[in-house]
Amino acid sequence: MPTTTLPTRAVGKAGLAVTEIGFGGAPIGNFRFQISDDDAHAAMAALWTGGGRYYDTSPFYGYGRSELRVGRFLQSAPASEYVLSTKIGRVMRPLRASDDTTGLRVGGLPMFPRYDYSYDGVMRSLEHSYLRMGVSRIDIAFIHDVDAFTHGSDAAAEPYFKAALEGAYKALDELRRAGDLKAIGAGINDTRWCRRFVEAGDFDCIMMAGQYTLLTHTPETLDFIELCRKRGVGLLLAAVFNSGLLALGSKSASATFNYFPPPADVMARLVRIEEIAAAHQVPLNAAAIQFVLAEPSVKSAVLGATAAHEVAANVKAHSTPIPAAFWSDLKSAGLLAPGLPTP
Q1: Cα 56-205-180 angle, rounded to 5 deg
Q2: Is 338 a domain residue?
């Protein structure tokens, strides 16, 4: 084990600090890839060996499988050294023969997820998470997937947002004030809905997926980041590689952009970035990771992985030297706005 960790950044007001690289537990839920227990354990161990100490999961990832695996790993780790986050919003029960499973994702445990953003639903969900993981402490809890991306439309998401503010937020705030949680937030795939939560409550952090990356940083997202700076809300960024494209590159036949085939304009933009990166001998994954961490409100790049070598590559990319001229050339080419922070 290393004698030091990766650099850390503070989240919230309770003295919590997360490492600049975190482990995203979605892939080890087995929804997209079939990963063995041993490979999942090795991937988490690779982050620890590389100095990372922040692990994120959710009951939704593999319908409990990710939490089981994260908990199994952390049970052998010094409890005082790691930071653990999970999410609320879905409560699991055993699958029944009478259940309609047409909407369920394959690869998960035989559990049936039910949306529940109520006060009681939060308490039940966290109790289940503690039992699945076998740990005595969860540091951060996120209200999960209250957005149009998940529920199909703004209108469909609206009742869940109302329920989350009236129930889930009250429960999480109560647990935070009691010291049972060190920070609370929301985990969202849509900038507009991230903003709504920040404007509606006293949140310590937001886990935002795929919205602020080397490829994707719209004016709407930049305005939201400015709001987070003003309010002291930390950003924990997931899908920093836009679900694979910024890790595998334009020549990969399997790389996706936000879980779908890449649009032509995105591919054209990526090719231009790759050309500049090649001219400066900059690895694409290093540019993607270091770009998001240059933003002061970003506290961690929470990177999903399916194998130890992927995690090791991410840790290496975090500290790979990148010349200032690379960032200047991206801005000169119109690929980054002049005012965007860079390393």
Answers
A1: 70
A2: no
* Contact assessment for residue 45 and residue 327, using Cβ atoms and an 8 Å cutoff: no
Distance between CA atoms of residues 102 and 249, nearest Å: 34
Q: How far is CA 63 from CA 2, 116, 243, in A?
A: 33, 14, 20
Q: Evaluate whether residue 41 is within a structural domain.
A: yes
Find the radius of gyration of the CA atoms of the chain: 19
Element (H, E) at 171: helix 169-177
Question: What pLDDT is attached to residue 1?
Answer: 47
**Domain for residue 15, yes or no?**
yes
Rounded to whole angstroms, the maximal C-alpha distance in the chain is 61
CA proximity to 293, closest of 22, 86, 3, 81 = 22
Whether pTM exceeds 0.85: yes
- The dihedral built from the CA positions of residue 200, 13, 64 and 128, taken in this order, carries a sign that is negative
pLDDT at 254: 85
Q: What is the per-residue pLDDT for 260?
A: 87
The arithmetic mean of pLDDT across residues 63-78, rounded, is 97
Q: Give the chain's domain count.
A: 1
Q: What is the pLDDT of residue 255?
A: 85
Residue 81 lies in a domain: yes
Structure tokens given for 288: 């993607």
- The whole domain housing 292 covers 8-332
Secondary structure (3-state) at 77: coil
CA pair distance 315, 342, nearest whole angstrom: 19
Residues designated catalytic? 56, 61, 87
Q: What is the domain-level CATH number for residue 290?
A: 3.20.20.100
For 8-61, give the DSSP string.
Answer: EEEETTTTEEEESEEEE-SGGGSSSS---HHHHHHHHHHHHHTT--EEE--TTT
Determine the Cα angle at 75 with ends 73 and 80, to 5°.
Answer: 110
Burial of 63 (0-12, 13-18, 19+ CB in 10 A): buried
- Residue 171 makes CB contacts below 8 A (sequence gap 6+) with 119, 122, 123
